[in-house]
Specification:
- Helix content is 33%, strand content 13%.
- The chain has 499 residues and is α/β, with parallel strands linked by helices.
- The protein has a seven-stranded mixed beta sheet with strand order 7-6-5-8-9-13-12, sandwiched between helices. The chain has a two-stranded antiparallel ribbon with strand order 1-2. It has a two-stranded antiparallel sheet with strand order 3-4.
- Strand 1 and strand 2 form a beta hairpin.
- Helix 7 packs antiparallel against helix 9.
- The radius of gyration is 26 Å and the shape is globular.
- About 12% of the residues have low confidence.
Amino acid sequence: MKRKLDEKTSVEDLLDGWTRCQFFLVNKRRLCRMEKVNGTIFCGNHQPLSSEPVVVATESSASEDGATRSSRRALKKACRGDRIPCPLDPSHNIYRANLDAHIKICNESKKSVLYSSWPYFCQNCNGGEASDEAADATLIDADRLVDKLQRIYDSIEANIPRRLEADDSSAAESSVAEIDAQIRNEIGGGQSSFDQLRHVEQDIKIVHHMISAGLLQVKSVVPGDVPVNRDVFLEFGAGKGLLGYAVHFADPSASIGLVERSSNRKKIDKFLTDRQASFERYRMDIRHCYLPKLPLVSAAVDSTETRKVAVIAKHLCGVASDMAIRSLCHLEGGPYRKGLALATCCHHACQFDDYVGRDWLVSLGVTRAEFNVFKFWSSWASLDRTAARRKPAASDSAAGDTAVGSVAVDAAEEPTGAETEDADDEHRQPTHTAGREVPRPKNLDYASLAKIGRQIKRTLDYGRLLFLRDTLRVPQAKMLQYCDEKLSPECILLLANTA
């Protein structure tokens, strides 16, 4: 019987007569339907992760006299103790007793061996230098840290975009208007709702700004012609590859590289193949991706003409944005022009060691511990939107609410980094109870907390902009608002193009 938790059904009702796994699936509002492991109330996938063994064998399962083969297997499982996340891939968990054996057969281990054999694999080539600085956030005075953030933000405020920046792509021109129509038709398909089409419109806006900055040139290719000089656009965190596909419509002669560490269904590869586009997909972590050895880039190096190699990405999560920017450092001195078009996202997922603006923040007196607090606070940027959605209720002080200064914030509503436009995509992060220990300023309302979150996001993006200008020597690099916040709350684009 399929039963879900609702106004007429309680958890007790769900458990009444239930003989399968008793793990409650919050998103589906029902109990797991897998068979229980003998002697427990959970299935194998939902065994709690704890320091104490939770699987206890019953006397009947321990009796060899009447034990069946299946009960003996259950008893063997019970003796393995607690389950722990796999150290190679935390997305799945294993029995602690099986750790050594699992490491040898884990798919992630096999992938690592395969990846390391590729010529463009270079261990941590795009990561930062590790620091031994302590990061004890419990000693931080939250109110003083807010004052420090305000001083830093005041010093850079003149460089922070405050309004939507119009592009100079002359969208009224027939060629650009035709590109827009192609992108909407091919990527948007028959979709009509705003939620479905907003990603398409975001891609169009990014393409417009790339054209305005000279990073992308509108070209037309006669069917059957083989372009001699191809610019290279590498989409990092490509997923399906929609942004690279949008770039293809503006410049069909360009070579598109799609870099993604996970496999994706409904990829755009088939459509690029049907259009006879030059493209390659690389399944690997951005951290280890050495650009000069990528086949598409090495072909640009061997070219007798100067060619553009540009890194593009839309809503690349936290630390991945920093590694994508740092990857361009390996192209120094090559016979090509570098470029970047990167829409940042998920600042809560930044890492102090890998953040490209770390030296700048350290020069301003920001420590590792303060940086970790900042990135947690950055998720507050959406609190004003959360407050607007909240229904007035007399139970704001009821159990389950967490006090933030003088504000009661529902623990289920407080953002955990998923303040981007997708509630069910890869950007959403799980709620970590450790985050509750992060110091918080007192006596601030939703609007003030949201302001702090936005200031942190822009400060982190500004540090990236300084890295582009100073370290990569692209003085004309800029940070701009590429779309309206209604189209995407993460509306900041880093744009760089060498002459």
